[in-house]
Amino acid sequence: MATTSTASPPTAWHAAYPAPRNTPAIIRREDVLDMIKQSAKTSSRDYILVDLRRNDYEGGTIRDSINLPAQSLYPTMPTLYTVFKDAGLRKIIWYCSSSKGRGNRAAGWFADYITDQGDDQMKSLALAEGVKGWATAGGEYVQWMIEYDAKVWSSS
The pTM is what? Predict the structure, then answer.
C-alpha cells in the first residue's frame, strides 16, 4: 500500500524575517564598472560590492567583492552598517546570481536599516542582473572578475 507524503516543503530561509519596506534602488553594471575603473586610478572608493551567493558561489565574482551569504545578512545588519559607516562607504551594492531574489531582498533590508538610522548619505543598491549579467556581458566585465570560469556562464 502506497503512502502519501504530507510533508510540506521547507520554509524559505528569508521567511523568518520581515519583508523589506523599501523597494531597492537598482544600479546598472555599466555604472559599477565606471566606479571600479575610477577607484583603480585613485586607490580610493566609497562603495563596496557584496556577493550574497552561498551554495551557488561558482564561476567567479566581481573583483574586490566580499562574500556574505544572504542567509547571514539580516541579523548582522547593525554590525555591517557600523563597519561600512566607519569605513566611509556611501554605496553598498548587493548582488547574487540574478539579483532578483537575494540581491533585491538584501538591498531592501539594508535600505530599511539605513532609513531607520536617519542616514541620508549611505545608499543600498542592487546590481541589475547580478553576477550572471556581469559575466555574460563578456569583454571588459570579465576582465574585472576573479576566478572567472567561462564554462559556468556558457551553460547558464
Answer: 0.90
